[in-house]
Automatic annotation (TrEMBL):
The chain crosses the membrane at residues 12-32, 38-56, 63-82, 88-111. The keyword Acyltransferase does not apply. Keywords: Membrane, Transmembrane, Transmembrane helix. This is DUF2069 domain-containing protein. Pfam families: DUF2069. The keyword Transmembrane helix applies. InterPro entries: DUF2069_membrane.
Length: 136
């Protein structure tokens, strides 16, 4: 379960999440803020800090829920990529969507062995329960 490829998926998830945090902050403060000088939209990066520690610590539960929550950022990236008239902002939006895709793929592929193991354990438990109920 802990091969070299598995380690790369973990590092990919960490790197893409950290990159997304920096990307959002730079987007809304320096590259293409909604208002000159920056705006409160930069706070959209703050919720990404919540799962960062769990992702670093390889917490399976954190990786599971964060892979779903991160899709909100994908949605924002696609919507702003299509709708922003500022070219720099539109490019940043598409970049955000791409980074989210990298995180999602890395998180799902990292979690894959755990999901297989959980299914196997559930199947074994169900078989044991069925054997016990048949004997009675």
């Amino acid at each position: 379960m802990h091969g070299a490829l598995h380690k790369y998926f973990h590092w990919g998830a960490i790197a893409s999440l950290a990159t997304l945090i920096v990307w959002c902050v730079l987007w809304e403060t320096v590259v293409a803020p909604l208002q000159p000088g920056g705006s409160w939209v930069v706070l959209k990066a703050a919720p990404l800090l919540i799962p960062l520690y769990g992702v670093i610590k390889r917490d399976v539960y954190t990786l599971q829920w964060s892979s779903m929550v991160i899709l909100l950022y994908f949605t924002e990236g696609v919507v702003r990529g299509y709708s922003d008239t500022n070219r720099a902002s539109a490019l940043m939006a598409w970049g955000e969507a791409a980074i989210v895709c990298i995180y999602f793929v890395c998180a799902v592929l990292y979690l894959r062995p755990y999901k297989k193991a959980a299914k196997r354990m559930a199947k074994e438990l169900l078989e044991k329960v069925n054997k016990v109920s048949i004997k009675k």
